[in-house]
Amino acid sequence: MVTRKSxxxxxxxxxxxxxxxxxxxxxxxxxxFKELKSKGYEVFPVNPNITDFNGEKCYPNLQTxxxxxxxxxxxxxxxxxxxxxxxxxxVGINNIWMQQxxxxxxxxxxxxxxxxxxxxxxxxxxxxxxxxxxxxxxxFVNGVFGKLxx
Length: 150
Known about the structure:
Elements: H1 4-11, E1 15-19, H2 28-38, E2 42-46, E3 52-53, E4 56-57, E5 71-74, H3 78-90, E6 95-98, H4 105-113, E7 117-120, H5 124-127, H6 133-144
Parallel strand pairs: 1-2, 1-5, 5-6, 6-7
Antiparallel strand pairs: 3-4
Helix pairs in contact: 3-4
């Protein structure tokens, strides 16, 4: 179960890999990258199929970022998430945010078994401050209906 503490612990790390950036500017991984960067996070794009992302070096995997990042936001299909959480563990990344739709039961279990702080089923843009109006409204509605992590 995701707790507010696990969310706060994740958001306290400032060097993040964004796994799932894309050449397609409309993809959500790109939005996450741009938003977190604008909020002061040091972000590193990860996609094995591109070498340059918006003028920045794009890394092929988490291994190439070993020692440079403290966490990873995963905006990829669940089967890639399952591989990526294992890669994260192998390079000492202990904070994972599985963006909604990226999580799988297998990946969540792996993180739990390996003492990795994992956030899943939540939108990082709803919790990273300052949140845009839309995300604040979404958070408010979830709070009214008791759907926010405690």
